[in-house]
Specification:
- It is globular, with a radius of gyration of 25 Å.
- Strands 1-2 form a two-stranded antiparallel sheet.
- It is built from 21 helices and two strands.
- It has 507 residues and is mainly α.
- 72% of the residues lie in helices and 1% in strands.
């Protein structure tokens, strides 16, 4: 049934009220658990004194958030501000050579930050993969690229390479894995795009300019070589209407979200609580469900803000970077589940869509998802939790296709056609609600720990049945219908825009 099926307004108001009350209720339980257990021994390392005018301690369990917005905030701002200044000056003086300036500044910043050994290691990866790219065989590019990626993800090769460059400051091991990992993925993109080039080859200088663009170098996101090369070498530097205003608005929005998250961390210890299994086992089912959901929402917020800051800088350079990840609240199908849009775009272009094609063949889809999650496993770093996360998400993606194929057959398709679009939307919403919690359970494996994920699953599905299970499913169903309503309105808006444009043209 179409996405434009409407529901009565009073029904949507009811869904909004139920969802709002459930979120407030779950938040109150988490707040109570945070306040009552603030002095537990298990909280000592991750709950520290916060802003003095709040008079409360703050959850600082997430190293990445603390690194970006507290510990190394000034260093990151200094490096990005320098890039913006240099990029703006040389864009005005010589827009033709601005991609070269981007690469030179980025290479210099990486050299100053990480030293000659790291720079030599990255350049050696670039030289190896560029040499393979000249052969113009995709399978060789993939083999060389994934072998190089494995060398920084698997023992003992990663420890040996890391020992060459670590030991100067606390952040260096993070920058090592981020810089090398993203660099190799960019090199693979370059090699595959070079295979598509009909005449001649891209130069090694093209690869270096692409790879050492500083905002993307250490933390991503990945922009595929074809997109970056076209945009960075565009000499027609014009802004769309209100583009500067939109960039400024996004920057202020990110700043507001950073402050808001820090405020929440004074009241809701959503990151520390899951690490204390003795406390988690004492929580109510509603509190546990809210805790699992809030952990995924926070991870999305963190990804959106971190990539948003970088994307703001890249937009000042007249680039169109990958969009932030889609909010977990808006997800009810596995096909749209990702926390890094750049990696997702990379995998879709070179692996998932290439093998799966139109994604309606069960066997091609199985092969496409297997290859996609195999590379994802290598990218994340092979370990037991990552293996489980990849298996369940791969299964979920394929299971969606199997179910869709099954219910598209008679008599199910006939029954759905006879019941009307609104009722079809409601029935699909029930399945989508169950799917939403499958996404949550599969992904808290990688965000928290296996014991926490098992406990959440056991309480929501087995021990909490039927009261907790059906209550959570009802609340989730309400949320899914509100998401579907938003998608419906966006679809109607997109349909109306071409019509209005055609009308203006005719006039």
């Amino acid at each position: 049934m179409g996405i434009k099926a409407a529901l009565p307004r009073y029904e949507l108001y009811l869904y909004t009220a139920v969802l709002g009350m459930a979120l407030i209720w779950a938040s109150s339980w988490i707040f109570e658990a945070s306040s009552e257990n603030v002095n537990r021994k298990a909280f000592k390392e991750s709950v520290k004194p916060g802003w003095h005018y709040f008079g409360r301690k703050m959850d600082v369990a997430d190293f990445e958030w603390t690194m970006w917005f507290t510990t190394f905030r000034n260093h990151i701002l200094f490096a990005l501000a320098g890039h913006v200044i240099f990029a703006k000056i040389f864009s005005l003086l010589s827009s033709k050579h601005r991609s070269l300036i981007f690469g030179l500044y980025g290479g210099f910043a990486v050299l100053i930050t990480m030293g000659w050994t790291f720079m030599g290691l990255v350049l050696s990866h670039c030289i190896i993969l560029y040499s393979v790219a000249l052969v113009k065989k995709k399978w060789m590019c993939f083999l060389a690229g994934l072998t190089t990626l494995a060398s920084i993800k698997l023992e003992p090769y990663n420890s040996w390479q890391e020992s060459l460059v670590t030991g100067t400051f606390d952040l260096q091991d993070i920058l090592f894995y981020g810089g090398c990992g993203f660099s190799i993925m960019r090199c693979i993109s370059f090699a595959l795009e070079n295979c598509e080039k009909k005449e001649g080859n891209y130069t090694f200088c093209n690869l270096l300019k692409y790879n050492f663009y500083l905002p993307f170098f250490f933390f991503g996101p990945i922009m595929t070589f074809d997109r970056y090369h076209a945009q960075a070498n565009n000499t027609q530097l014009t802004r769309k209407e209100r583009e500067v205003w939109n960039i400024t608005t996004r920057a202020l929005l990110h700043l507001g979200v950073i402050l808001l998250v820090d405020v929440f961390f004074h009241y809701l210890y959503i990151l520390t609580i899951p690490s204390d299994m003795k406390l988690v086992k004492q929580l109510s089912d509603s509190c546990l469900a809210g805790l699992a959901y809030s952990n995924l929402v926070y991870d999305w917020v963190k990804s959106a803000v971190m990539f948003g800051v970088i994307n703001t800088v890249s937009r000042l350079d007249y680039l169109d970077p990958p969009q932030p990840p889609k909010c977990i609240t808006m997800l009810y199908v596995f096909a749209e589940t990702h926390f890094d849009r750049g990696i997702n775009d990379w995998l879709c272009k070179y692996v998932y869509n290439y093998i799966g094609q139109n994604h309606d063949n069960i066997f091609k889809e199985l092969l496409a998802t297997f290859c996609t999650f195999s590379i994802t496993t290598l990218w994340l770093g092979p370990c037991e939790v990552v293996y489980m996360w990849s298996f369940f998400n791969c299964f979920g993606l394929n299971f969606e296709l199997w179910v869709a194929k099954f219910f598209s057959l008679p008599p199910f398709s006939t029954i759905e056609g006879a019941m009307g679009e609104a009722m079809s939307r409601r029935i699909r919403g029930v399945f989508n609600a169950a799917n939403f919690w499958a996404i949550v359970l599969y992904n808290i494996l990688s965000l928290n720990n296996l014991e926490f994920a098992k406990l959440v699953g056991r309480k929501l599905i087995y021990k909490g049945f039927p009261l907790t299970s059906l209550s959570v499913l009802l609340v989730t169903y309400c949320g899914v219908q509100l998401v579907k309503e938003r998608e419906r309105q966006l679809a109607l808006l997109q349909d109306s825009e071409p019509a209005e444009g055609g009308k203006e043209k005719a006039e």
